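sry for the spam today, last one i promise. struct tokens for design, 81 residues
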């Protein structure tokens, strides 16, 4: 019974050592991934802000065009009478 427990503990210890070793080797990869993800988030935020500003400007142009049309239509109707 003790031999089985010792064998299982040894196997788990070896597995633990392997996992720790792999994690130590993969640290630079994870660090690079996290840095790139941060840069992507920053760029996406900038893109969203720029798109919102563009849409606000486009809305102002559309509002101006709508107001101009509302002013011109009655004037055209009066000119044809």
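last one done:
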């Amino acid at each position: 019974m003790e031999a089985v427990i010792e064998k299982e503990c040894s196997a788990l210890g070896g597995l633990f050592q392997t996992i720790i070793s792999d994690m130590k080797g993969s640290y630079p990869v994870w660090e690079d991934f996290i840095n790139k993800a941060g840069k992507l988030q920053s760029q996406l935020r900038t893109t969203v802000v720029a798109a919102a500003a563009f849409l606000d400007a486009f809305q102002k142009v559309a509002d101006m065009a709508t107001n101009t049309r509302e002013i011109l239509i009655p004037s055209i109707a009066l000119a044809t009478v």
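The two ends are 109 Å apart (CA to CA). ok im logging off now
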